[in-house]
Give the backbone structure.
Amino acid sequence: MGSSGKALILQREEGGREMSIRPLETLPPTESLEIENGLSLVPRVRLELTLYPASPSVTKPIDEWKVKRTLIHFLKNSLSVPVTVPEEDLHIKRIKDLKKRKRDDPLALGTLFVRDLGFLNEKSKKNEDEKEQDVKVLEKFLDWRRYIVEKMDGIELNIEGMKFKLSVAIPASDDFESMKKSWEEFFAFGNRGYSRSGRQEPDTIVLRGVPSRWFAEPRVSSKPSLLVTHTIFSTFGRIRHVNAFFFCL
């Protein structure tokens, strides 16, 4: 979920993180937003990783653990501001059947999450109001995200004498500038300039892969509640309709 260039992930809050009760649209991309039922929206940067062999002759399976250690070392030692990433926030999955792999296919795919963004917070000045500070933090966030992509994209990893080339990109779901542009084009051209709701913006949130117990009434039942679900998502504005399918595991 996100808005205005902010990427946030829904999770159950267990303490130890700076929280905010400010409206979502005014929230800087470095702060968490506390919502109902002990849940919070937590900021993060997500990057998609693709690993290719530097030479077509490389046919040996890649060592996922060594790739992770190499990338973690790079993030900690090769950026203007060191970034410490826990191993569980860096996922590498190698292509299992190399015999079926085509010449230009990757050897592995991965995802990197950077969750600690506190270093991007601007120090407030005496005559600077909160809105000006938030704008600066957002600009700094977007600049830093572009910077880390540029620094990582195209680097060559040398693992036990074998060289690999890394490709890094911001996933389409986190590229809010492009997403906003595509919606503007849709309403201007694809929908012939008309909108049934009269509002030219996305109007639906789709949520998957979240534990159903997060939406339960703790003292009433362990099963998810439509009322609790409605209350939680009212954080984002007035709700017209909730279409919920819960699978309790």
